[in-house]
Design brief:
Layout (H helix, E strand, L loop, with lengths): L34 E4 L1 H9 L5 E6 L1 H10 L7 E3 L2 H8 L8 E5 L15 E6 L4 H13 L4 E5 L8 H7 L8 E4 L2 H10 L3 E5 L5 E2 L9 E6 L7 H5 L3 E4 L11 H11 L5
Parallel strand pairs: 2-3, 5-6, 5-10, 6-7, 8-10, 8-11, 9-11
Antiparallel strand pairs: 1-4, 2-4
Helix pairs in contact: 4-5, 4-8
InterPro entries: Alpha/beta_knot_MTases, Ribosomal_eL30-like_sf, rRNA_MeTrfase_TrmH, SpoU_MeTrfase, SpoU_subst-bd, tRNA_m1G_MTases_N
Protein name: 23S rRNA (Guanosine(2251)-2'-O)-methyltransferase RlmB
Organism: Methylobacterium adhaesivum
Length: 265
């Protein structure tokens, strides 16, 4: 029995069976074309996003029942499997909640396509997919219009990153640029206030106030912002910690900064 990979939903689904060749990831075209999403929020949000082209959905019976109850008719026919089949694809430590989806990457806008009054994030060589995913999730909560990152020194929007983003990838586009400093220069010419987060800065974040348009620039933990990135920021700001610990995870710093620059709007 075959199942449709995309298009209108049908009635046929695969029944559970042992893992084997048919439960290996199936690339589409050039190697790496497809992204893998797993877990309830990433998969459910992707299924609801008409702009996401879907290829293959594996679901356990319990997960399928929840999808049917909360989403209704699906855009793709699922293959019903046992949890072990998804474990075989992702490994036993992945919290997949009975859902595994192969899909096309979402198209990213160009820098010129971003609104002139936007609030943006820019990531300066943040490579940990857990951190980037958590930043995407927070950005979606605060209505960030886009996250600027580079093709090199950044994780791809699949697997762990997508799981950590908890569906946020469907709502906040990733803007891939060749050179971050050049992108910041271009945004500055368009009137964006470029705010670099730096624990050693002289300016407290809470003195800046709400800004639009603005781009918040975040550096990797430990290394912080690179010098050229710092040189292309209008202001460097620090979170004014009061306790004994003066540094936090970059995704938490992103959440605090987004809140601080949104209060009063």
């Amino acid at each position: 029995m075959t199942t449709r990979r995309d298009g209108p939903p049908g009635r046929q689904t695969r029944r559970p069976g042992p893992s084997g060749d048919r439960f290996r990831p199936r690339p589409s075209g050039p190697e790496g074309d497809r992204v893998v999403l797993y877990g309830w929020h990433p998969v459910a949000q992707a299924l609801a996003n008409e702009g996401r082209r879907l290829h293959r959905l594996l679901a356990t019976e319990n997960a399928m029942a929840r999808l049917t109850e909360e989403i209704g008719q699906l855009r793709i026919d699922p293959e019903l499997v046992r949890p072990s089949a998804i474990n075989a694809l992702l490994g036993p430590d992945a919290v997949h909640q009975g859902l595994y989806l192969e899909a096309d990457p979402l198209p990213g806008p160009d820098l010129d396509d971003l609104p002139d009054d936007a609030l943006l994030l820019a990531l300066d060589q943040i490579t940990d997919p857990h951190n980037v995913g958590a930043i995407v999730r927070t950005a979606a909560a605060f209505g960030v219009a886009g996250i600027i990152t580079t093709a090199r020194h950044s994780p791809t929007a699949t697997g762990v990153l997508a799981k950590s983003a908890s569906g946020g990838l469907e709502h906040v586009p990733l803007v891939i640029v060749r050179n971050l400093s050049e992108a910041l220069i271009e945004l500055g010419e368009r009137g964006f206030t470029r705010i670099g987060l730096d624990s050693d800065a002289d300016t407290d974040l809470d003195t800046i106030g709400p800004k639009r348009p603005a781009v918040i620039v975040l550096g990797a933990e430990g290394k912080g912002l690179r010098q050229r990135t710092r040189d292309n920021c209008d202001v460097l700001a620090r979170i004014p910690f009061r306790g004994e610990i003066r540094s936090i995870n970059v995704s938490n710093a992103a959440a605090i900064t987004l809140y601080a620059l949104s209060v009063g709007r």
